[in-house]
Write a structure and sequence with these properties.
Structural class: alpha/beta
Strand order of the largest sheet: 1-11-8-7-5-6
Bound molecules: nicotinamide-adenine-dinucleotide
Number of strands: 11
Radius of gyration: 20 Å
Largest sheet: 6 strands, parallel
CATH architecture of the largest domain: 3-Layer(aba) Sandwich
CATH topology of the largest domain: Rossmann fold
């Protein structure tokens, strides 16, 4: 039987709908809506698109979103000054600095900037204080993609406690927080990475398998225990026809989309996995829409926490 497809668009909408009363209550009490500042440095096309859709979703959810732009020639000090101003702003509860930053800012620029954001406004959940709280199981602001995946599992009635979970990928923004969230929810968790030996055998133990490596079609049927839940985080743009034709059988619906656009965004999970998994997130339309919904949810949470902290 083909896998149940987990619809991230529907779950994202449900998360946003459930936030509405909270946004309204906050706005009444504080005399202003929750607010987020989105910082965009330079004019990277992908980043413009991401920031644009975050602005639009915030507006639709009753959240104030302000775009703060810096030119590609800005220095790291210019950016740190902007972050400092936003840290002190009364109307901004959340600050998001869009990655990637221009290479000229230096290899450690992202870390320096994320470290400079007030942890109370860190709606990306990347600040070491928030990561430390996550390790201790008392986090308020958690990285959006992994926390969206937990919401998706909960809202799809997929049990986490007591299961075996395997996370492929150990990045600070997806793999590590994902593993910690699953652990905090009482899964038995294994984290795999590029040096893991016999990865398919480890992955096959999973009741919940999360693929977050950025390698299109890497997770084949061999990695999946029949009936397992498979979460595909990968989003890699591919325009190489040979790669597309290797992954999708003739007549597959995504081939038509490729013919039209000349490229596709591909997940880490091979299409054949649909035949063995119990449940599966598609790409696109799986994990992606959850990330923005959780960014907005974090913004509302940050706003509420800041209001409460003022007494
Ligand atoms: P990253 O490059 O920082 O980390 C990739 C991880 O995969 C590393 O820990 C590495 O050890 C592991 N890895 C690489 N090759 C491997 C291999 N052959 N075997 C086992 N492990 C291997 O990437 P990231 O930022 O964690 O993102 C991963 C993917 O998720 C990317 O495709 C990214 O675009 C996507 N992503 C999607 C969303 C979303 O909202 N849908 C959000 C964040 C990231």
């Amino acid at each position: 039987m083909p896998a149940r497809l987990l619809d991230g668009v529907a779950v994202g909408q449900a998360i946003r709908a459930s936030m509405r009363p909270e946004v309204e209550a906050f706005t009444r009490e504080a005399g202003r809506p929750p607010g987020i500042a989105l910082v965009l440095v330079g004019n990277d096309g992908g980043s413009e698109l991401y920031v644009g859709s975050k602005m639009k979703s915030a507006g639709e959810s009753g959240i104030r979103a302000d775009l703060e732009r810096l030119p590609a020639t800005a220095s790291i000090d210019d950016l740190l000054r902007l972050v400092d101003r936003l840290n002190r702003s009364d109307v901004h509860d959340g600050i998001l600095v869009q990655s990637p930053l221009p290479k000229e800012m230096g290899a450690d620029a992202e870390r320096r900037v994320f470290d400079a954001i007030d942890p109370a406004k860190d709606v990306d959940g990347f600040h070491p204080t928030n990561v430390g709280r996550l390790v201790q199981g008392r986090a308020s602001l958690v990285a959006c993609t992994p926390s969206g995946i937990i919401e998706m599992l909960d809202r799809s009635n997929i049990e986490i406690a007591g299961t075996r979970a395997v996370v492929i990928g150990r990045s600070d923004i997806v793999g590590k927080p994902m593993a910690l969230l699953l652990l905090n929810r009482h899964a038995t968790v294994t984290v795999c990475h590029s040096r893991t030996k016999d990865l398919p055998a480890v992955a096959r133990e999973a009741d919940i398998l999360v693929a977050a490596l950025g390698r299109p079609g890497f997770v084949t049927k061999d990695f999946v225990k029949p009936g397992a839940t498979v979460i595909d985080v990968g989003t890699t743009p591919v325009s190489d026809r040979a790669v597309i034709e290797r992954l999708f059988a003739p007549g597959h619906r995504r081939l038509a989309a490729f013919e039209k656009r000349g490229s596709l965004v591909l997940g880490d999970v091979h299409p054949e996995v649909e035949e063995v998994a119990g449940a599966l997130t598609p790409v696109p339309g799986g994990v992606g829409p959850l990330t923005i919904a959780m960014l907005l949810k974090n913004t509302v949470r940050a706003a509420q926490d800041r209001l409460r902290a003022r007494g």
